[in-house]
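re: ur question from earlier - yeah i can do the single chain one, its not a big deal. heres the input i used so u can compare w yours
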Amino acid sequence: GAPGADSEDFKAVLEKNIPVTMYFGDYIDNGPDDIMSTSFWRRVRDGALAFAAQYNADGGDCTVVDLPKIGITGNSHFMFQELNNKEIADHIYQWLESRALA
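and the output i got, formated as tokens:
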């Protein structure tokens, strides 16, 4: 998960001006409520969104990507093992390239 805005980790990443991106796959909003991992991933994503909001407000650069919302579906949290991993890798590469990191 992402560090809280009041943590030393948050301050260190912000101070070093590190661009951050976080990716989330399927079954967070539509996963069964009786499965513990559904609520776990909702908390992790909500923490990432809170991190991004504060990080960006403090002058940082953070992007949270919810893959189903951009039309990339069928992914767990092991996106590198999925059948569409090249599509995800291309998306990540474009993010890196847009920040002159690739």
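DSSP finds three helices and two strands in the chain. not sure if urs matches, ping me
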